[in-house]
Amino acid sequence: VLQISKDDVTALQCKVVCLIQNGNFKEALSVINTHTKVLTSDIIAFEKAYCEYRLNRIENALKTIQSASQQTDKLKELYGQVLYRLERYDDCLAAYRDLIRNSQDEYEEERKTNLSAVVAAQSTWDRVVPEDLGLREATYELCYNSACALIGQGKLNEAMKKLQKAEELCRQSLSEDSDVTEEDIEAELAIIHGQMAYIMQLQGRTEDALQLYNQIIKLKPTDVGLLAVIANNIITINKDQNVFDSKKKVKLTNAEGVEHKLSKKQLQAIEFNKALLAMYTNQADQCRKLSASLQSQSPEHLLPVLIQAAQLCREKQHAKAIGLLQDFADQHPANAAEIKLTMAQLKIAQGSVTKACIILRSIEELQHKPGMISALVTMYSHEEDIDSAIEVFTQAIQWYQQFQASRIRGCSATNHGCCVFQPKSPVHLSLIREAANFKLKHGRKKEAISDLEELWKQNPKDVHTLAQLISAYSLVDPEKAKVLSKHLPSSDTMSLKVDVDALENSHGATYVRKKAGKLTGDSQQKEQGQGDVKKKKKKKKGKLPKNYDPKVTPDPERWLPMRERSYYRGRKKGKKKDQVGKGTQGSTTAGSSELDASKTASSPPTSPRPGSAAAVSATSNVIPPRHQKPAGAPATKKKQQQKKKKGGKGGW
């Protein structure tokens, strides 16, 4: 027909539809674009928009739909799909509601499924609490989408039950078809099992999650989006461990078409994990490249700059990392708090605790938080800077006072009596108590008194605070302490009805009183008389040495070191050092010079050892070396004879 009439509208329409049915979307779109004069937007708007949608030209598809003069039902259906892909969930929800309200055909179940998918996406990505649409969860698709919405709200246990129900419904519906095999059912269940594993991972059951993830990968599902998400989740479980497995899994996230199957936040999370994996595998340049790319895409996002700072810290460039974080905090004040917390952590790691405190105190929105106050006081105490710690308490208490005052000023005049006395908040009172305890601990009694008086004023029945106040005043103003002590309750009113015997004999008591026998009258009176006398502790006898002899007087110099005692003569030299005749016959030894009489005669006398008699001159009674008998000669002879016997037929 087209050979006869190339501009025949019906023939061109038929050709476009046939190409779409065969999946040749590019060729179909080419036919539409080459015959724009004949195939106007009114005639073929849906086919053109559908081709653009299937070719992932989503923005072009939206323009084509919006330019159509008449919005048919099928264009509205496609419009809803396009809005979902563009992540315009509010507009998408309105479009599907309008479709369900104004159409009645066999596709109503599919529209409800799409509507529940939009609600799940809002809950997951926009953190919107979904409204109850009143959809009956009769199919496994509806059950699955409902579970995804519950995951977005953090209701993990309920979501797991919904997924289990979805699995059951899926098996029932697919098993009714005789052509569907068990492998087909498992492939269909893969996405449900993937969400189950994700819930397990969120619950901290990482081993179970990892096992289920690997089972899904073994099935080799055709959905590249599902594989990419599972691979990414396995990488997050591995963290800095098992990096070789993580590098294998990264390839699944790079599959063709993944970018069209996942949301922007999912793709962003995958890119973040790629950068972290590059850091863990010491690919510094790759890590910097990926994090810089992510920062250019999302300039206000925290993770890219934190990854860059972490990489610099791994390279021992802490100063550069802190500078990078400071620049980001200056450029993006909205995210400055989290960045400054990281900077403080780096300063603490370097040992600069005082500088870390300065950074923390610059975070205005966190200055009054109990956690921040506790951290600062602990750090200043570690640095023994008590004045700064007290200043932190003072500033925080002043902030709560101003906050309380602003609330009082905000009261209307018709609220009778609301401004007469405004009790302090529990956090404020707790802060004052902690400040008082800290000051008492560090000897700042006068400063602690004002805080304790404020606490007692708020609760005059608080005996513990009153006791602390009296204790503090007793060191500063004893008279005031006496006056305040009158407010203490009497001992009778403070006595507790406690069975002391039962308490001491209880299972958890650290001290159990031994049951004593009945006492006689005399001994009872004796005990009563000695009740007020303190028992004297018996001195333990000192231990005596094993060889102690009471008849022998101990050495008076026994407390002195051996070298300082008068009878110490030094260490005894070994016999072998003084032996002569070592070695072969005729050889000389190192000690031969000491036996030479000519040398000994001229040498000066040696100094006496402590406690020894006066030294005899070296020249008296000296025997010439030839007449000296070696001390070890007989022993060496015996050894030689023994060697001969052992050797058998020896001889000279």
From TrEMBL:
Belongs to the SRP72 family. TPR repeats lie at residues 190-223. One of its GO terms (cellular component) is signal recognition particle, endoplasmic reticulum targeting. Its main location: cytoplasm. Residues 58-113 form a coiled coil. InterPro entries: Signal_recog_part_SRP72_RNA-bd (IPR013699), SRP72 (IPR026270), SRP72_TPR-like (IPR031545), TPR-like_helical_dom_sf (IPR011990), TPR_rpt (IPR019734). This is Signal recognition particle subunit SRP72.
